[in-house]
Amino acid sequence: MKKISFSSFIVLFISMLFLTGSFAQDTPQWHLPEGVNARIGKGRANDVAVSPDGTQLAIATGIGVWLYSAQTGAEIALLTGHTTAAQSVAYSPNGKTLASGSGSEIRLWDPSTQAHKTTFMGQQATSLAYSPDGRTLAAGRWQGVDLLNVQTGERNSSLSGHTVHVRVLAFSSDSKKLASAANHREDATVHLWNARTGKLLRTLTGHPRHVHSLTFSPDNSTLASGSRDDGIRLWNAKTGKQTRTIEEWSDSLTYFPDGKTIGVGQGGTIVLLNANTGDVLQGLPAHKDGIHSLIFSLDGSTAVSSSWDGTTRLWDVETLSFITVEGHFNFHRSALSPNGKTVAVVNAANIFLYNTLNGQFNKVLDVGRRGGVLAYSPDGGTLAIETWEDGRQIHLLNARTGKLKRSLRWEGDGVRSIAFSPDSKTLASGSWGDGAIRVWNAKNGKLQYTLSEHTESVEILVFSPDGKTLVSGGGDRTIRFWNLQTGQLQRTLEGHRYWVQSLAFSPNGNTLASGNGGELHLWNPRNGQLKQTIEGARGEALAFSK
User: Fold this and answer.
1) What is residue 7's predicted lDDT score, i.e. its pLDDT?
2) Are 484 and 339 part of one and the same domain?
3) Separation between Cα atoms, residue 472 and residue 458, nearest integer Å
4) Exposed, middle or buried, 4 (CB in 10 Å: 0-12/13-18/19+)?
5) Residue 39's pLDDT is what?
6) Are residues 432 and 521 both part of a single domain?
7) In terms of C-beta distances under 8 Å and separation of at least 24 residues, what long-range contacts does 261-268 make, across chains too?
8) Domain shared by 360 and 418, yes or no
9) What is the model's pLDDT at position 317?
10) Is residue 342 part of a domain?
């Protein structure tokens, strides 16, 4: 197989580490990687923790762990060192240690000085929880939980029984029991363990899908589990029997320190429930989007709510006054303008535009409804964004003003990918469910034809530089070439072990790069021959240098 010299071009592996929507001028530019001009935002909040005395807040993100003053909301520090995204954080009961976890290590910090204490290498920690007596650190991992010695990181017990990563942990206040859940559709069980011996006490079943949160009542008699799918279930923590179902869906939940009230994150509202009857006591509008975390400080004085809208709020439990920490948006989609000067990123119903040279915020475009997949036209005049709240649509917006030009509508599954032709006259959209590709006239909004050869989602679309060919990569692990004028399938390429996540043509059109999470293929697009395979290359997104 012929090898290709990499001196002729550069393939850029772009890993989007949770871009955020905070204005760059308001974000401390700490610990910037070499060659980076500015950071846009602070990273999505993967997990939050409040110190036992309620004075400090820790937020785990893709770029590190942010520390804030709970009194003022001011940034204290950004703790860096994890080689991958920080997924979890937990304070020790005495407040002298902060643990942060990733997919490959746990790091311990002094939260008062921000000094790094030690690292437990090779230890997964998709979730973390200290036992209230301070003797044990529980770390969620693939298919189980490890109970660690807090000083050495040695495993006291390894608990197995889940089928995917464990992302939810809760200790009873007497440190005798540990509850675990996966927060995944493939594992809706709750496991109840003896936290001293590691013995499985009960497996609680009943939720049909995701179990988002777990919390013990202060007297340890009841375990509450929350789900968006079928509400809240209360379990006898000793026998494992279900005692009540509360028909209130939840993204997060926690018992109030007095045990009489359960706080529930329900969309952007904190709903207070009578813990005995399940009756709604009060609804407190708190955020503009779903609340993924709701916790109390150990002393009960401070409550913390963290939302997908990018804000985390610290509440005074007595007065319900709050301080807001901003900047931890989940910008899950982005697009770079053709001239490279602007990056557009999507959060909820807004598109935020930033200057790529200095990270400065330029403008926000209000889409009016939640947006997803985003793409610039090559002429720079149009932004295409998918929406779904009032039917499947792609809105074509003036890229400068945000004014709606036209909307493309259809019946069927939602959009997974969008691409414009080089002349900006044609738009192609690929679906995430039925494998359909729709080709539109971008000038008048008319559907030209639908292509239906993929058997799973259409992950990526790209046009050849001459605009004559559309190439699609799918969840079915195939790459398909289409004649743009006729819509005819020209060629199908196979060879990826996993779905095809990214595609890019070289500027001269002589090479097509295709990638996924573990391998990169380089193809001759004229005859479909594989030129080279690069193993271990993470190619979630690809681009050639000009």
Assistant:
1) 28
2) yes
3) 7
4) middle
5) 57
6) yes
7) 262/215, 262/224, 262/232, 263/294, 263/303, 264/226, 264/232, 264/294, 265/290, 265/291, 265/292, 265/293, 265/294, 265/305, 266/291, 267/291, 268/307, 268/309
8) yes
9) 79
10) yes
Mapping DSSP to helix (H, G, I), strand (E, B) and coil, where does residue 25 land? helix
Give the DSSP per-residue string, 446-512.
Answer: -EEEEE---SS-EEEEEE-TTSSEEEEEETTSEEEEEETTT--EEEEEE--SS---EEEE-TTSS-E
Long-range contacts, stretch 115-123, CB < 8 angstroms, 24+ apart: 116/79, 116/81, 118/153, 119/81, 120/148, 120/153, 123/148, 123/153
Question: Among candidates 438, 314, 418, 325, which has minimal Cα distance to 374?
Answer: 418
Residues 355 and 276 reside in one and the same domain? no
Residues 253, 393 within the same domain: no
- Alpha carbon distance 177, 198 (integer Å): 9
Cα–Cα dist 462/468, whole Å: 11
Domain count across the chain? 2
In a domain, 177, yes or no: yes
- Does 511 fall in a domain? yes
- For 131, the token pair is 């036992």
C-alpha–C-alpha distance, residues 352 and 174, integer Å:
47
Query: What's the pLDDT score for residue 234?
Result: 96
- For 301, the 3-state DSSP assignment is coil
- In this prediction, residue 32 carries a pLDDT of 64
Please check whether residue 58 is in contact with residue 49, taking contact to mean a CB–CB distance below 8 angstroms: yes
Backbone angles phi, psi at 232, to 5 degrees: -110, 135
CA dist 193 and 203 (Å) reads: 9
Q: Are residues 349 and 428 in the same domain?
A: yes
Q: What is the pTM of this model?
A: 0.69
CA dist., res. 484 & res. 465, Å (int): 12
462 CB-near residues (< 8 Å, 6+ apart):
419, 470, 471, 503, 504, 505
Identify the domain boundary among 229, 260, 285: 285
d(CA 143, CA 381): 48
Mapped onto helix, strand or coil, the DSSP state of residue 38 is: coil
Residue 443 near residue 400 (C-beta atoms within 8 A)? no
Looking at this protein, which amino acid is placed at residue 239? T
Residues 244 and 340 in one domain: no
Q: Are strands 116-121 and 127-130 parallel, antiparallel or unpaired?
A: unpaired
Q: What are phi and psi of 25, to 5 degrees?
A: -70, -15
- Residues 320/314, Cβ–Cβ less than 8 Å: no
CATH of the domain at 137: 2.130.10.10
CB 403 within 8 A of CB 388: no
Reading the block at residue 536, the tokens are 């271990």
Q: Are residues 341 and 435 in the same domain?
A: yes
Q: Which residues of the chain have pLDDT under 70?
A: 1-41, 327, 329-332, 517, 538-539
Query: According to the model, what pLDDT value does residue 509 have?
Result: 94
Structural domain contains residue 90:
no
Q: What's the CA gap between 434 and 452, in Å, rounded? A: 8
* Of 515, 471, 514, the residue nearest 490 (C-alpha): 471
Cβ contact 228:238 at 8 Å = no
- List the domain range (segments joined by +) for residue 263: 126-285
